[in-house]
Amino acid sequence: MTTDRLYYSDAYRATFEARVVACEPRPAPGEIPATYLVELDATAFYPTSGGQPYDTGTLGDAHVLDVQDDADGRVVHVVDAPLVPGAPVRGAIDWPRRFEHMQQHTGQHVLSAAFDRVSANRTESFHLGSESCSIDLAREVSARDVAAVVDEANRIVWEDRPVSIRFVSAEEAAALPLRKEPARGGMLRLVEVDDFDLSACGGTHVARTGGIGIIVVNGWEKFRGGSRVQFLCGVRVQRRFDLWRDALAATMKHLSVAPEELASGVERLQGEGKVLQRALRVANEKLAVYEARALVARGTRMGHRLVITEALPDLDAAGLKAMAAAAAAEPGSAVALFTATAPALVVVASHSAAGLDAGATLKALVAQFGGKGGGKADLAQGGGLNASSDALVAAARELLGR
Fold this sequence. Notes:
By secondary structure, this protein is an alpha+beta fold. 35% of the residues lie in helices and 30% in strands. The protein has three domains: 4-93, Beta Barrel (Elongation Factor Tu (Ef-tu), domain 3); 98-241, Threonyl-trna Synthetase, Chain A, domain 2 (Threonyl-tRNA Synthetase, Chain A, domain 2, 2-Layer Sandwich), CATH 3.30.980; 288-400, Diaminopimelate Epimerase, Chain A, domain 1, CATH 3.10.310. Helix 1 crosses helix 2 (143-158), helix 4 (235-255) packs across helix 5 and helix 5 packs parallel to helix 6. The longest helix is centred in the last third of the chain and has 37 residues, at 262-298.
């Protein structure tokens, strides 16, 4: 049997009474905790459909986790506890979630109609996400288009026009000025924004456009030859404003600037950061040369090579590379330096007179201790070596001294 969909005629119905038609364990072997598929003779729960997500709430003591629309016209509720077939049950919708969806969906109708009327840009599809919504338009949009469309859409919102529901046959619908041709036949449910939009839709909507609150577009991009437009309505606008207000207030406090000076303040800070980075790089290079002298002094003569291998604390990959390259400037030197933390980074460097292939040496270290890396005969670097510093240094000393 098909389910009587109470939300079709009254989207504001948050509680209802119904009879349990069926309850079966959900076919998901090993699922913990178990869930059940419940069918009712009537429901106010909206199933995922037409770009709008499902409602949540309760059926008796059971929590509704998902609501699905099957091919036979039945609404199936996924719940976390079994219900007794044939027994009455009271349903309660999570109203804040439902109303938020009503605002977004009705706002989409108004926004799509505004794009159609102001810039002759047809909506191809709609998606209502958990944080924001989007419509996909047939053509690309400009900033000027978006500004004009949003102004027109909010004019309709603030005029608080009635939003009505009616049912018509496919034949009757064919004679009506629908914004978009229906995707299905048979009896159609039409949602009408007074003197602005008429569309076939099975979703939940506010009773008057004033209930949308406000519509804002928070971004758009090229998409499949047209545009994808992100938008927010009502309570989502308030939440996003609160987020941006707090973020901007904190940023302005740190930069000690007024709102209108924020962009220039960030630009100034980025410029100062680049100057400091260049100065730090020059200082580190000079320090590497100085400290490399100490490494060379601690090196060990093994045949014709000066073997230098140590694990050094407080160095990142760039510092390790600079130090190894500076030490390898010493004639005949063969260098392998590691970070003192595990898994370790490693840089192998060689002076041309040492006759050492740094890349081959790194490959041997990776084969023994794991990790990855690569390089050339004079310089190679890698990471992910899992061993103690003593083990790494000992292995490198053996490889460099051959």
